[in-house]
Design brief:
heterotrimer; A alpha+beta; B alpha+beta; C mainly alpha; B: alpha+beta; Ubiquitin-like (UB roll); globular; C: mainly alpha; DNA polymerase, domain 1; 3-stranded antiparallel β-sheet; binds FE2/S2 (inorganic) cluster
């Protein structure tokens, strides 16, 4: 369902063709990272720290090396020591510890052997002697006066040089006079919140195969960006980028968690030492213990408002716990405060180091935490004022020109349109089902541009290959094909979209920040436009007319004598490509760009739910997600992003959390105990796509991948408040926590 | 750019000269030592509502407002 | 050929090259490795390869009828019920088991029937709808055939 129809009439954009890579995926032929095997391949296994923070006194690999089938062992000593100021210093240390381990699960050594079982047995035989160091396990511990350092290589960024610190960023944003505005406000609500670490939870564990023969590391892996895998792997190995080639496998989910590397340099080293290809696959336990969770957070939010519902001031304190390495979570969290006008604003935020797994991006990183707290407080204000929560938000919603927290004016954005679409929806217009209560909330994400390349080759038969470097994590190949079909004017199924390796297409940044359809799509459109120029020139030659007499209409060249006047037929793209050899050779075009003007995307969610007062269990009975897509290229996959993001947010809201023991060991490192939502936990997720086109993209695309995870926590918290009268302030809102609050009522 | 106040004596808005963003950063560095490298170490620039990554050579007209932001990432 | 401790999942993938069956956890918690074991839905990561001796095992590779996709495969494609697609083989096998048993399931029965399979991309909405659509199509064909 589309609320505001895009005014432009497109032929292909907005249709729902079967995706080009779909067939292979439903018959079991698609090759994901763990599906590739090379002749002579060995298997690897990684030794991981059982301690949250320790000095490594010694590593004895001799017993392991003598075991059957073992071909090579590596430790931190096998990798060059990067300068601490190197941008990939932390990544290198996270891949393989050197002299000090920073979290339980940190890789400390690795072994490769003929079989998986042999590799595992040998890994267990590696003896490591540790000397325990004080471990920082919470944000409060990290920020405490005189706290020991979680990582003595960390310095606070963006400030004048100082001593090592547990804080990676300290951010103060402000405008107006917050203290005066709070004093003048008719209503002030202040509350504190906290969130546990949660995992991206992609179903495909990290995996790779690396063959380091001939002085070059050939890497096959799944990632959100194989060019970044190339540069990071090269840096960790201490070689030039050109000494690493990365071929992307199909990726089984990433959500931000596959924007960095864990295994590739280790497999490369093992391969180099053994002279054989090496395969490394993480177990689910390793995925949870050693790959990126989203940060934990502690937040305190105070909002002031007038009696008629103007939100006059926000005063916020937010700290994000990110693991033991530098990160900008706190800074990004501050910047994500952008939904309301707030004439007076003060945000004080911190990125705090902890001896827990190094956090990685997770869908709209840092924004869900902040939105959870702020949207909960805004909900309290609406009920204190007796206002409809959508009306309160409509009154304060940011529009073009309003300032985000960092002080920059918004470009054209669609928050008002999303709020209005939700207000008019069948869901919001009807009463909650019997026994259920309702909550709603808003979410924002910037989206990003960055570098992309695309090559489009026209084939002799009039078909086209669209080659990009953006791994397809949610149907982006279909989107590329649709944009190419629209621009060239040919059938979407005559286009073959391809994700090429690092040596077959121009540099392309990671598929993150909802950027693939925006930035890579823009490159595809530019390459197609270049081809149209070439096609017109070829047509002019064939027709015997001047090129400026030729127009491109519906996939064919038209000139006065060829379909443009009363006489003749247009020359189709296929007729032109068939004569390519006679008119100058193959038709091919490449476009590369560093895209500016990514369009922010707002979302509004609404949930009806029931709380079982006996058990504290929450059952969601109806859920609707509204989001501004700019333009929905393939509406099914836009809906899919909205639904997937919503359900990840629902899991975050209700169940998911890292549980650590007193020594920082994760106690629930399995899908049994780290419980992500299953089909029977959920209702259908209704979607409404709003289209406020982004002027910076040829077809108006904003990114849609991320915003959907931002509103669910507050949406659900607000509905629980409506159902029970209790305000949940700690994530997840799991049955025991809800029950506890109910009992305190 | 209020997150860079540690360099500017508390000012959130400062004036600087230059025909490109890079020149503006050089001018800021001259007046506020350390600020230039902090900006180059990690920032994108928001100009006219558009965010530009690595804007070193981006041309700017006089009286342009540049917002130095953290390099926004994504998931 | 497989060692006694080899799982059916590893035997399928490594020895028979049937890579359609995926490993998401190895502990029976995600359903990516779903197969039909004598017609019954099972996690192949929990079965030892020797136990499969003489049994009928159906994997995702065996769901289509030659070139003719199974209605579930077709409705998954048409309904965009896959995003990354790594869970898809497991869901197709589980959904086939469900419809073989119960050709006319309610939405709730579908949701409980698929509750052993994790998908992190779709939020399950389009998967449930694709199974509903396939059930309708299968019923129409079987009624026409009858
Ligand atoms: S791999 Fe068998 S259930 Fe997850
Ligand atoms: S489609 Fe990715 S896990 Fe289901």
């Amino acid at each position: 369902m589309t609320a505001t129809e895009n005014p432009t009439n497109y032929k292909w954009i907005g249709t729902r063709p079967i995706r080009h890579d779909g067939f292979d995926k439903v018959v079991g032929k698609a090759r994901f990272a763990a599906d590739l095997n090379l002749p002579g391949q060995l298997h690897g296994s990684i030794v991981r720290s059982p301690h949250a923070h320790a000095k490594v006194v010694s590593i004895d690999t001799s017993a392991a090396e003598a075991m059957p089938g073992v071909k090579a062992v590596v430790t931190g000593d096998d990798f060059p020591a990067l300068d601490p100021t190197h941008p990939n210093f932390d990544t290198a240390v996270n891949c393989m510890a050197r002299g000090e381990v920073f979290y339980n699960g940190h890789a400390i050594a690795a072994v490769t052997a003929t079989t998986r079982e042999e590799a595992k047995a040998a890994a267990a035989a590696i003896e490591v002697e540790y000397e325990l160091l004080p471990a920082i396990l919470s944000i409060a511990d990290s920020m405490a006066e005189g706290a020991p350092l979680a990582n003595s290589n960390n310095y606070t960024r963006f400030v004048p040089p100082g001593d090592p610190s547990n804080l990676a960023t300290v951010t103060n944003l402000d405008r107006g006079d917050v203290d005066q505005a709070m004093a003048d406000a008719d209503v002030v609500v202040e509350m504190g919140f906290d969130c546990a670490h949660v995992h991206q939870g992609y179903i495909e564990p990290h995996a790779c195969v690396v063959d380091s023969g001939d002085g070059k590391a050939n890497v096959w892996c799944s990632s959100q960006g194989h060019f970044r895998v190339r540069s990071m792997t090269a840096d960790v190995l201490g070689v030039e980028n050109s000494k690493v080639k990365v071929t992307p496998a199909e990726i089984g989910g990433g959500f931000g968690g596959k924007t960095t590397i864990y295994l590739e340099p280790i497999a490369a080293k093992l391969s180099e030492k053994s002279g054989r290809p090496v395969k490394l696959v993480m177990s689910r336990e390793e995925v949870l213990r050693a790959s990126g969770p989203a940060p934990s957070a502690e937040l305190r939010i105070k909002v002031g408002a007038t009696n008629d519902g103007e939100l006059t001031a926000i005063d916020g304190w937010m700290a994000y716990g990110v693991g033991a390495f530098g990160d900008m979570a706190g800074l990004i969290g501050a910047m994500s405060v952008a939904s309301y006008k707030f004439p007076n604003l003060r945000m004080e935020t911190y990125t705090a180091l902890t001896n827990t797994p190094k956090s990685a991006a997770y869908r709209a990183p840092s924004a869900p935490h902040a939105a959870w707290a702020i949207e909960s407080v805004v909900d309290e204000i609406a009920s204190e004022l007796g206002m409809d929560p959508i009306d309160l938000r409509l009154k304060n919603a940011a529009v073009e020109g309003d300032l985000t927290a960092m002080g920059m004016p918004h470009p054209k954005v669609g928050l008002v349109e999303c709020l209005e679409a939700m207000k008019a929806s069948g869901h919001y217009q009807s009463e909650p089902v019997e026994g259920a209560s309702r909550g709603m909330a808003v979410g924002f994400w910037f989206n990003i541009g960055e570098e992309s390349s695309a090559t489009v080759n026209l084939n002799e038969d009039g078909t086209a290959n669209v080659i990009t470097g953006s791994p397809d994590i949610g149907g982006s190949r279909a989107s590329m094909a649709l944009m190419a079909a629209e621009t060239l004017g040919i059938d979407v199924y005559s286009i073959t979209p391809i994700v090429a390796d690092t040596e077959s297409v121009g540099f392309t940044d990671v598929t993150e920040g909802s950027r693939a359809t925006f930035a890579t799509g823009k490159a595809v459109v530019e390459a197609c436009e270049d081809l149209i120029g070439q096609l017109k020139a070829r047509a002019a030659t064939i027709m015997g007319v001047e090129v400026d007499e030729v127009a491109w209409v519906d996939g064919a060249a038209v000139s006065p004598g060829h379909g443009g006047g009363e006489s003749g037929e247009p020359l189709t793209l296929a007729q032109i490509t068939a004569q390519a050899k006679r008119t100058g050779g193959p038709l091919t075009a490449t476009a590369s760009l560093n895209a500016a003007g990514a369009g922010p995307s707002f979302a509004v969610h609404c949930a009806d739910l029931k709380v079982d007062e006996e058990t504290g269990e929450t059952e969601i009975v109806r859920y609707t997600a509204v989001q501004d897509a700019g333009t929905a290229i393939h509406p099914s996959y836009v809906e899919g992003q909205m639904q997937g993001g919503s359900v990840q947010g629902i899991g975050w809201a209700l169940n998911e959390e890292y549980i650590y023991d007193a020594n920082g060991a994760m106690e629930n490192a399995s899908f049994l105990d780290y419980r992500i939502p299953v089909a029977s936990d959920l209702p259908l997720i209704e979607t409404i796509i709003v289209e406020v086109p982004n002027p910076a993209h040829p077809y108006g695309v904003r990114g849609v991948g991320e915003t959907g995870i931002v509103p669910p926590m507050a949406t659900i918290g607000n509905a629980i408040k409506a159902a029970t009268g209790v305000r949940m302030t700690s994530l997840p809102m799991s049955p025991p926590k809800v029950l506890k609050k109910l009992n305190e009522r | 750019m209020s997150q860079h106040r540690a360099f500017t004596g508390g000012e959130a808005v400062v004036r600087a000269n230059g025909a490109t963003v890079g020149q503006v950063i050089n001018d800021l560095e001259a007046n506020y030592p350390g600020l230039g490298s902090a900006l180059r170490a990690g920032s994108s620039a928001g100009i006219g509502g558009e965010i530009h990554a690595e804007p070193e050579y981006l041309k700017v007209a006089s009286d342009t407002e540049i917002y130095f932001l953290a390099p926004v990432v994504g998931g | 050929m497989s060692a006694d401790s080899t799982s059916l999942l590893d035997a399928l993938r490594d020895e028979l090259g049937l890579i359609g069956t995926k490993e998401g956890c190895g502990t029976g918690d995600c359903g990516s490795c779903s197969v039909l074991f004598d017609g019954k839905l099972n996690c192949s990561c929990l079965i030892l390869a020797p136990e499969a001796e003489g049994r009928e095992i159906v994997t995702v590779e065996g769901i289509a009828d030659g070139d003719q996709l199974h209605p579930l495969q077709q409705t998954f494609l048409e309904g965009a019920a896959l995003q990354c697609g790594v869970c898809t083989p497991g869901f197709l096998v589980a959904a086939k088991a469900l419809l073989d048993e119960n050709p006319d399931p309610t939405e709730t029965e579908i949701r409980y029937g698929l509750a052993g399979n994790l998908c992190r991309c779709t939020g399950y909405d389009k998967i449930v709808r694709a199974v509903q659509e396939a059930a309708v199509q299968l019923k129409t064909t079987s009624e026409q055939g009858a």
